[in-house]
Amino acid sequence: MRKIVAFSLLFGFALAFGFPASILAAASAANEHEHEHGGAPGAGGEVTIKGELVDSLCYVGMAAKGAGHKQCAMDCAKAGIPISIVEEGTGKMYTVLPKQDKTGYPDSVISKMGEKVTLKGDFYENGGNKYVTVESVE
Fold it and tell me: CB-based burial of residue 49 (10 Å sphere; 0-12 exposed, 13-18 middle, 19+ buried)?
């Protein structure tokens, strides 16, 4: 929020004193990726999900899971293929997201691929897709 206020003040000051549009465009581009995560649409609060961690490509395409697929799932996760958790009992699949942007999956998640775990994190739903961030995994 502070960055938005600061940018607005800078923009107003620049307009009032006639700064060139190129300076304004550069200031705008510098703040292009800045965003806040609070209050996101579809935020459902903290959840605990029990289920198996899978790599989404092999699970969706070949139903690959379990201990026999552990090494492949770990390799896929390290290569950037999204991790999902398949909820025990319901079979619902949630895409697992890192806790923060500009980061990857923590080793504590990758090392448990193909295992039944208890994952705690924040739930989000967008466009019919379900997501959960990683706070902890046991």
Answer: buried
Q: Are 112 and 66 in contact (CB under 8 A)?
A: no
Q: Give the residue extent of every domain in the chain.
A: 1-36, 43-137
Maximum Cα interatomic distance, the chain, rounded to a whole number of Å: 67
Q: What is the mean pLDDT of each run of 10 residues along the chain (138 residues)?
A: 41 42 42 46 84 97 96 96 97 95 92 97 95 94
The pTM of the full predicted model, rounded to 2 decimals, is 0.69
Distance of CA 54 to the CA centre of its chain: 16
CATH 2.40.50 fits 43-137, yes or no: yes
pLDDT at 9: 38
C-alpha neighbours within 13 Å on the C-beta side of residue 23? 11
